[in-house]
Amino acid sequence: xxxxxxxxxxxxxxxxxxxxxxxxxxxxxxxxxxxxxxxxxxxxxxxxxxxxxxxxxxxxxxxxxxxxxxxxxxxxxxxxxxxxxxxxxxxxxxxxxxxxxxxxxxxxxxxxxxxxxxxxxxxxxxxxxxxxxxxxxxxxxxxxxxxxxxxxxxxxxxxxxxxxxxxxxxxxxxxxxxxxxxxxxxxxxxxxxxxxxxxxxxxxxxxxxxxxxxxxxxxxxxxxxxxxxxxxxxxxxxxxxxxxxxxxxxxxxxxxxxxxxxxxxxxxxxxxxxxxxxxxxxxxxxxxxxxxxxxxxxxxxx
Length: 302
Hints:
Layout: H1 2-23, E1 34-35, E2 54-58, E3 68-72, H2 83-95, E4 99-104, H3 115-129, E5 141-146, H4 148-158, E6 181-184, H5 197-204, H6 210-215, E7 229-234, H7 243-255, E8 259-264, H8 283-293
């Protein structure tokens, strides 16, 4: 009898292990990072890894809405929080049937404006130009940025073009306007008292040009052509004042751009998807609802 129970228990354990192995969702395998400019980025100062902006694709098994999102991690334009605000976000999107593309853009103090913007624009053009290869709709290409990456994303959404039809490079013939934006605790303004000073100086140098400060205060650059936007921030963010999000939201409303904003009371800067925070863990759910309502994520995804 004891031998029978032992064999039965071993069988059940092995069955459970096999079942879990069969049902546990596999993490997506990222593609090999692609050089956005194989022949060298415009304005490159060298040939090191720091001089080579790349894009890493994470493609889901199924993509019902054929949506792709370029992800811009934050880091004050000085470093990139690639795991918290890149890889983890890509996995979240893949689990919900959306393709993700994590951008490695050029940073200060080695690079200033316009290098990061050129990288973000090129990323959007690249994803759109290769949409058919990845099963995407070229009109379903968004951008998602965190903190300084939110400034870069909002800059891409307020400083874009339709592409150059005369360009020899097919990617450059494609428009750089994102179809929608997701901005998480973003830097928006370069104005004193509102901006994040570290991001300001890494992007524009120690003595910023006042004209560029205004041009890259993206709350002043919103038009009716700015893409629909979802904003998330927290009131007690001690690094990036919540007014960055508020001012951008107000500008979107004035321009008649569809926008949704969620401001939580508590929550430190750099909270990512809010994992482990009972309050902030709700914000990705609100984002998922917004993406679904706009046709960029399937209902009941995940």
